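thread from #wetlab-drylab

HS: before we spend reagent money on co-crystallization trials with KG4, can we at least see a predicted complex? here's what I'd submit
DV: go for it
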Amino acid sequence: MLGIETSCDETAAAIVSRDQSGRGSIRSNVVRSQLDEHAAFGGVVPELAARAHITYLDHIIAQATREAGIELSEVDAIAATAGPGLIGGVLVGLTTAKALAAALGKPLIAVNHLEAHALTARLTNGVTFPYLMLLVSGGHSQFVVIRGVGDYQRWGSTIDDALGEAFDKTAKLLSLGHPGGPAVEQAAKKGDPNRFRFPRPLLREARLDFSFSGLKTAVRLQAEALAPLGEQDVCDIAASFQAAVSEIVAVRSAQALSRFHEELPGVRPTLVVAGGVAANQAIAAALASVCARSDADLVVPPSALCTDNGAMVAWAGAERLVLGASNALDFTARPRWPLDLEDMKVSPNAA
Ligand code: KG4
Ligand code: ZN
C-alpha cells in the first residue's frame, strides 16, 4: 500500500504492507518537513505549503518506492489523505493519488487524516479494538473511542484552540520559534513549573472537552507584565505552561478512562496517544501515572509516527482495503471531516 500525506506542512509518502494475520510492516517512510519554507512567517502559510507539496511530492513517492525496493506498479492500492486539513495541500496529494490509481488501474483509498492517527497504534503496537484515543495535534484535541475500523465515537474535543496550537502560540509569544512544541518542552526543562499558577480552564466541569484559549491569554498577560523577558523568565513561563497543560490532560484522561470502564465493562482500557504533542515527555509521564492509577495501559507510538507521516495513511488504507473498502475517483477533498460521521463506516466496494 502506498500512502500519501499532504494535509499540513509535511510532504510524505510511504510503503506499508499488512500480512494476513493483520500485522503491519513499514517498508519505507519518507517525510519532508517544510520548516524552511514557513520559518520566516512563524506558522504554516497554506499557499506556500501547497506549492511545496507540488514541487516535492513526485520525488518523495519515487524515493518511497525505491527505499521499499518495489516498482510503483507493484502496490496493491493507493491511499491518500483526503481531509481534514489545509485544502490546497490535500488537493495536491489526493489528485496525485487519483492520477496514479487511474494510470495503474489500482483502487484509491481516500483516508481521513484523523483515522490515520487513530489506527497508527495498531501498526506500531498491534493494539486491539476497542481502545480510547487521545488525539493531541496542531489542529485537534479530542478523545475518541475506537471500536473498529470506521467505527468511532467522539467523547470530547477542544472548544477553542488545539493543544499543539497552544504550544505553538506560547512559543511565538516567548520568541522560541516554530514549531513551538519541541521548543517549549526544551525551555521548560530549565524552568520552574511552580513559579506561575496558570488557569486550568473547564477542569472542574464533568465534561470531556478541552479549552486552551484562556490559558493562552494568561500566558500572554504574564509575559507582558514581566517584559522585557529574561532567559529564566522564558523558561519559567514555559515550564509553568507545560505543567498546566499536563495537569489538564491528565485529569481529563482519568475521567475518560473511568467512563470507558463504565461503558465498556470487562475491557481493560488502552489509552493511545496520537498526534504531534504525544512526543512531549512531560505529558507522556503524566499520562503514564494516570494509566497506572486507572487500571489502563498506555500506548505512545514512536514520535516519528505520531507526527504527520505517510506510513499512518498507508496503514489506514490497508486496514480499509482488507475490509473491501475503496473510493471512487471523484471523491472530493474535505477541509473539515469529523471522525464520527456516518460515512466513516466501511461500506465494501463503494467505488
Ligand atoms: O500531528 P502533527 O504533526 O500535525 C497535525 O496534524 O497538526 O502535530 C503538530 C503539533 C504542533 O503544534 C507541534 O508544536 C506539536 O505537535 N508538538 C509538540 C511537541 N512536538 C510536536 N508539542 C509539545 N511537545 C512536543 N515535544
Ligand atoms: Zn496530524
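DV: The longest helix spans residues 231-263.
HS: ok that's useful, forwarding to the group
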